[in-house]
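Replying to the earlier thread about multi-chain prediction with a worked example.

Input:
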Amino acid sequence: MRRLLHVSASPRGAASFSRTVGEELAVAVAAATPGWTVTRRDLSHAPLPHPGPDFARANALAPDMRGPAEREALARSEALIGEVEAADVLVISTPMHNFTLPSVLKAWIDHVVRPGRTFRSTPAGKQGLLVDRPTFAIVSCGGRLGDAPAGQADFLTPYLRTVFATIGLSSLDILCLEEMNRGQEKVAAARAAVRVWSAACVARAAPAPGA
Ligand SMILES: Cc1cc2nc3c(=O)[nH]c(=O)nc-3n(C[C@H](O)[C@H](O)[C@H](O)COP(=O)(O)O)c2cc1C
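Result:
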């Protein structure tokens, strides 16, 4: 059994460009080879609480110093990390909100990216503790990225690359759907780019022969 986890962040439900493309990719990966289970985590439909004081206290303690209360405070984080660890392939779909990621996705990241659990700090910097795996992100923007005045700052895609690499997921492949609020022609151009990109992702996600 192989597992794909689709984490989506758009508040726009079925109308979301990013979620629709993420879902199409998940279905295409699962259809390409037998034996897939797809798990969906819709962060807008079911938002996570932000890590609170109990989480922060427990997270700062060494694992062998944690009692039942601290383990309980980290239980949600453990479950979310477990979903990532169980996945052979990750799909992250998100809109750009105010030049960066929606807060619901940031909350998920704050539960998943934890010192001593998914990364460790070393004199050489942070080292990821998760096994790398194919990870695909679909980012949808209303406008264009790049230099002003035509473009806008992008604090989303560099952030995603940094934070996923921090936990060991360096094989992050990002597709940006730009100018999605600028008419049907732009949407059609993005759909054409999606087809090419998705075909390459499906090939990358396929298990190695004999695996
Ligand atoms: C709160 C909010 C903030 C947004 N900020 C930006 C932004 O900074 N840059 C941009 O290009 N589009 C911005 N947009 C537009 C969305 O990124 C755009 O509509 C995108 O295609 C939505 O993706 P979705 O269909 O997957 O939800 C914003 C939308 C919302 C609701």
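Helices lie at 17-32, 53-60, 68-73, 75-86, 103-112, 157-166, 184-205.

Feel free to reuse this layout for your own posts.
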